[in-house]
Amino acid sequence: MADILTSVFRTFMSQTDVNKDVTVVPHSDSSVSSSVLLPGDSSVSSSVLLLGDSSVSRSLLLLSAVMAASELGVRVVFFTQTQIQSLPVSLQKCVPSPESLKKIKFSYPRTLGDLLQQVAGLHESQNTSPTPPSLIIVDRLEGFLGGNHSEDQTSAAHLSALLCDTSSFLTQILKQRSPSSAPCRLIASFRSDVDSEHTGGESSATDPILDVLDRYFQMRCTLDRDRSYEAAAAGLKELWNVYLSATGITEDACTKEREDRPAAAPKEWQLSISPDGSMEFKMA
Length: 284
Fold this sequence. Notes:
two-stranded antiparallel sheet, single chain, 11 strands, about 35% helix, 11 helices, alpha/beta, P-loop_NTPase, globular, SWIM-type zinc finger 7 associated protein 1
């Protein structure tokens, strides 16, 4: 999933960064090149946990869904508790075709039980024919999980396990139909109740629910509001630091894999949001 996020960052890249030496992934094939994957096992389903501001996270989730559907031509399932009223401003300026948007199925579970039932339903034949989803998105996990109580940690583990199992199941279906297919990817957003500072994308305080989620999701994408002098000098624009990091994967375990493929995508980006809501990324 980090590859699709990286493609989003590059699509909406600042013009000052466009000419830099960055390998752009071609979108001519439904299988995304592994050259933009961060350390991790690309042979299994790829999962990313998007941490930070709920509004910015939702815009990134929608950008990812539309890019997967329009550029990669794959089916997307998008779970959220709140109705999608409009596309992000960045997409309104380059509206995707209605046909590509039809590849995105929006589902609106109200409770954790509803979400579990709908995710489990992706195992049923009517949801895998003629083509199973290649991307599962869950908006605002915290809305389904509640506070930091022990029962919510259990629920977080149950939901995460089901999401990962479903992603793996759909990957098997995709591979059976086309051995060259990319795995079914999973991305979910979460805003922690722990209000803490971030350094390099790492929280200085511990959230027990986040600790549980990290056991299941392979990657983190952390949004950290930039309040530096540079951000203040930007005037009306909001500046955000975006950190991509692997969870539970050691550097040594990934060394050979990194040597066997082209350079990985940058692990840190900067996002600027204009007053009209348009987004622009640049490499940090």
